[in-house]
Specification:
heterodimer, A: alpha/beta, Pyruvate-ferredoxin Oxidoreductase, domain 3, Rossmann fold, 3 domains, B: alpha/beta, 3-stranded antiparallel β-sheet, 13 helices, globular
């Protein structure tokens, strides 16, 4: 497995609490008003200024109208988890105005559209009105775009008041509009006008501002779904079937966006791939299983409700031993749940997925370039193990923009696993068994349709089968096959990515987590260390659990298992695996559907340690 | 077959690619004696033998139920996949992207297709997957001991389940409305027609739906049941006498003007439809819907090629794939070159 992911982690250069490059901006707008463009523009401009930055879209499941927030954190030390504290607030939505006003930290700045005529009953903040309607009116935007353009007013005003470089705003707009001059000019015109207005009229009375740094060199900004799609393309994905669902849709959409550029035959212009939008998730996974059976690198991507529909085919793929990759971009359940909120609550379901005895292999990406890495690695594992490989991302990883190290070209050749072609069968005189454990690792050999050797074919099935893929209800056949599958799962322990482990001097507490929570945990670890509680950290990158996880549990007095769900699902799975040590495992499960904060981690551990 | 001597081999009849009929057989059937499905399996074997198809070039799919067990009983040298209830079409769809040179046969039943499978049945037609989709239609659930299926006629009385109160689903009608490009109905008691339709279906460019009334001798074969042998024999009205002529073969029988319709298939073969009582043009979808309504009203078991459109592109063609089967592509074909990674990173912000 490749080297452990490097984290966004820098030594603090200034005391925490400084007001330069160290605060959160939260923007409240009505959903569907086009504010995403404005928010991303601010985010990207800050990134281009060299300041570590993150953005979280906290949005409703709605096309238009309901309140939505976007929170940007700038942090010179590279701590980029979401915070609950908002030093700079922009209020564009009358419906959330009172709420947004109440959220401003004492001493903070409150920018608001001046057509919202509501009382500002706080003395402990600095309020800045913005003449949004007037500036839009003065712009030459066509009337159908005026509402969208309105959000560029706050970009200009906030940029002026915080010290965001307008050139960087322009670069962000160029990127967003893919170089199309007309929208760039239109939007930038409004930004300039608003900034000029602010420079002339507003007096800076709050202490928050940004200054250029050099801390983002060597990073890119990307979201996990795009990274996953690109990684899959470098993994040689040949077939993808999907059905629209928040927050997974953009993964498949990114496949369709980038595949034609990267994967057409250069001579004929013909495709080496196919992407099919299925009629539902039942069909999406059915198609992927068919393609996997046929020897293609096949995948589907979905979220909780879709995953529920996929259970039966996933079970067939497990039992018939068909390689497929299933991306689950987790959102809040149960049922339809909170479709636009983030969660890590599918891990138990996937672990046990399928009726009867089944065990599934999972990859758990954390940083965005790991979404890329697991994009290609998942295919190697699926084909090597001939089993479904589930990659559990989440809404926060999948849909938000993150700073990340660039995507790295795969450092290993493609592994197609144990596939026999005509010449192999010729050599073996056609003697082989589809479900025979020829190598003692539980992984059998397979052939794929189109193989012309007369002994190549077999009839794949979800019914009981013997080592030669014949229908069998024989008790010995059944038992032998199921025990071989178990052995195969043990083989997987040596093949899946090892965890990321980071230790601190003198630590006897362990923290064990996975996925998108690392930023919050790393920040909390620093605070805890300062408070005299050093911790070791293990970020789980795959299931089944590897020896490193066993060692980590064994070597610590206590292990805090931190995750975003109600029931402490990973804690439960670890307790099953390490039943004789389960009293050492302490669950810290966090439930509100918003990305985890460092404060939560810090306070939860302090509360436990105080006891 | 090691004990078979060269002598017996020489005496056995072979087709143009040197295979015996036994090369197309599968495992012994475990279905009931006299089951219509066994008769259909025999006709699949005969059709593939007569079409001189290498078994390795054919792939079989099925869902769940008696019908779906049957692919184990034919073409033992062909790959196959017995999938989930009602979800054979999605499985077949994905598989056919693996090697587009294969010919596909999907076998389903009325329980498998007309209930949970209705969605996938409709969508596989919409995508025009190149596959012969056979529905072995007997009006009951056999494996679970004879419950009504969704194609059972209203008023049908079965021993253990009383009288069916619901309207039936007509598979051929659904296929037509679903814009299938080849819709046929046949009867397991008319093996010659079944065989010719399978051959025609195997030569079709896209999806070929064959709704074959295939009596369940155990649970639904009383003379007044619309899925019985007796009812079928008494009520079959063939639209035409259908014969299949392979590509490049001379059409030997001459027909008078207006006596027969020739349909040229995508692979160059010809389907000759010799006129019987009706003037029937299977390229007219509206007429096809009318004949089904008429058959319904007159209690006919209408059989033959109900509708065909040979022009519509199929799913695989639409995707403009490279000529090499996708599952034979090498790493260099499917992993973008190292030089592209910087470009990709530059495409991010």
């Amino acid at each position: 497995m490749s080297a452990v992911q490097e984290n966004l982690k820098m030594e603090p250069v200034v005391e925490i609490g400084s007001l330069v490059n160290n605060f959160s901006i939260t923007v409240g707008t009505p959903n569907g008003s086009g504010s995403q463009t404005s928010n991303l523009t601010i985010l990207r401009a800050l990134f281009k200024m060299g300041i570590p930055v993150s953005g979280k879209n906290l949005f409703p499941s709605n096309i238009q109208g309901l309140p939505t927030w976007y929170t940007i954190r700038v942090n010179k030390d590279g701590f980029l988890a979401r915070r609950d504290e908002h030093e700079v607030v922009v209020a564009m939505n009358p419906d959330s105005f009172a709420h947004d006003l109440a959220e401003v930290q004492p001493g903070g700045a409150f920018f608001y559209a001046d057509d919202i005529r509501m009382p500002i009953n706080r003395e402990d903040i600095v309020a800045y009105p913005m003449p949004v309607k007037q500036i839009v009116k003065e712009s030459d935007a066509p009337s159908n775009l005026k509402n969208y353009i309105a959000n560029m007013v706050y970009v200009g005003v906030v940029a002026q008041m915080l010290g965001v470089d307008l050139d960087k705003i322009h670069q962000a707009l160029e990127f967003h509009f893919k170089g199309r001059q007309k929208p760039i000019d239109l939007n930038y015109g409004v930004v300039q006008k608003a900034a000029a207005w602010a420079a002339e009229i507003l007096e800076k009375r709050d202490p928050y501002r940004v200054e250029p740094m050099d801390a983002t060199a060597g990073y890119i900004m990307a979201d996990g779904n795009t990274a996953a799609a690109l990684g899959s393309i470098y993994g040689g994905v040949q077939f993808a079937a999907w059905y629209p669902i928040t927050p997974a849709s953009s993964l498949a959409e990114s496949l369709s966006e980038y595949l034609p550029t990267l994967r057409k035959d250069p001579e004929t212009g013909k495709n080496t791939f196919a992407v099919v939008q299925a009629e539902d998730e039942l069909a999406a996974i059915g198609m992927a299983v068919g393609a996997g059976f046929a020897g293609l690198r096949a995948m589907t991507s979905t979220s909780g409700p879709g995953l529920s529909l996929m259970v039966e085919y996933a079970g067939l793929a497990y039992y018939a031993e068909v390689p497929i990759v299933i991306w689950d971009v987790q959102r809040v359940g149960p049922s339809t749940g909170l479709p636009t909120r983030t969660s890590q609550a599918d891990i138990s379901m996937v672990y046990f997925m399928g009726h009867g005895d089944s065990q599934n292999v999972m990859l758990l990406p954390g940083p965005i370039n790991e979404c890329f890495e697991f994009g290609w690695r998942a295919f190697d594992l699926a084909e090597r193990l001939q089993t479904p490989v589930f990659v559990l991302s989440d809404l926060d990883l999948g849909m938000n923009q993150w700073m990340t190290r660039p995507f790295e070209y795969p450092d290993e050749p493609i592994d197609r696993g144990k596939v026999l072609w005509e010449e192999d069968l010729e050599r073996m005189n056609g003697r082989w068994g589809r479900y025979l454990d020829a190598d003692g690792d539980g992984i059998p050999y397979r052939t794929v349709p189109g193989n012309k050797h007369p002994a190549a074919a077999y009839f794949a099935r979800g019914t009981g089968h013997n080592e030669f893929a014949r229908y069998s209800e024989d008790d010995k056949d059944y038992e032998r096959n199921m025990l071989r599958l178990k052995k195969k799962y043990d083989t997987a322990r040596d093949l899946v990515p090892k965890p990321f482990v980071e230790t601190m001097e003198g630590a006897n507490l362990g923290i064990l987590a996975f996925g998108s929570t690392e930023a919050a945990i790393q920040e909390a670890r620093l605070h805890l260390a300062k408070a005299g509680i050093p911790t070791d950290f293990l970020r789980l990158r795959a299931i089944p659990f590897t020896q490193e996880v066993t060692d980590f549990v064994r070597d610590h007095e206590k292990v805090y298992v931190i995750e975003m769900n109600r029931d402490g699902q990973l804690h439960q799975l670890l307790s099953l695996e390490y039943a004789n040590q389960c009293v050492k495992l302490i669950s810290l499960a966090y439930l509100d559907g918003l990305p985890m904060t460092a404060r939560y981690v810090e306070e939860a551990i302090l509360a436990k340690e105080a006891k | 077959m090691a004990e078979q001597t060269t002598e017996t081999r020489a005496r056995a009849q072979v087709n143009l690619i040197g295979l015996e009929k036994s090369d197309y057989r599968g495992q012994p059937s475990t279905l009931c004696q006299g089951c219509g499905h066994n008769s259909i399996s025999s006709q699949i074997i005969a059709a593939c033998y007569e079409l001189n198809l290498a078994p390795e070039k054919v792939i079989k799919f099925s869902g769940i139920g008696c019908s779906s067990k049957s692919p184990a009983y034919f073409l033992g040298r062909s790959f196959g996949f017995n999938g989930l209830h009602g979800r054979m079409p999605s499985l077949a769809t994905g598989t056919m992207f693996g090697d587009h040179t294969l010919r596909a046969i999907g076998v389903s039943g009325d329980g498998d297709t007309a209930s949970i499978g209705m969605g996938q049945f409709k969508h596989v037609m919409r995508r025009n997957l190149p596959m012969v989709y056979i529905v072995e239609n007997n009006g009951v659930y056999g494996l679970t001991k004879g419950q009504f299926s969704a194609t059972a006629e209203s008023g049908l009385t079965l021993k253990s389940y009383g009288t069916n109160p619901y309207m039936p689903i007509d598979i051929a009608w659904e296929a037509l409305v679903g814009r299938a490009t080849f819709v046929a109905r046949s009867f397991a008691g008319d093996p010659k027609q079944v065989k010719e339709l399978i051959k025609a279906g195997m030569s079709h460019r896209g999806i070929a739906v064959l709704d074959i009334i295939s009596p369940c001798v155990t649970f639904n074969n009383t003379d007044d049941s619309m899925h019985s042998y007796a009812w079928g024999k008494d009520h079959e009205v063939a639209l035409h006498e259908l014969s299949y002529v392979p590509p490049l073969e001379e059409i030997e029988v001459e027909y008078e003007e207006g006596e027969a319709i020739d349909v040229t298939m995508h692979d160059g073969s010809t389907v000759i439809l010799k006129k019987l009582e009706h003037d029937y043009d299977p390229t007219d979808r509206r007429r096809a819907l009318e004949i089904l309504e008429e058959a319904n009203a007159k209690n006919w078991l209408i059989t033959g090629l109900i509708y065909i459109d040979t022009a519509e592109a199929n799913l695989i063609e639409i995707h403009n794939l490279v000529d090499t089967p996708l599952n034979r592509l090498q790493e260099k074909d499917i992993r973008p070159g190292r030089e592209t990674i910087d470009i990709v990173n530059a495409m991010m912000f």
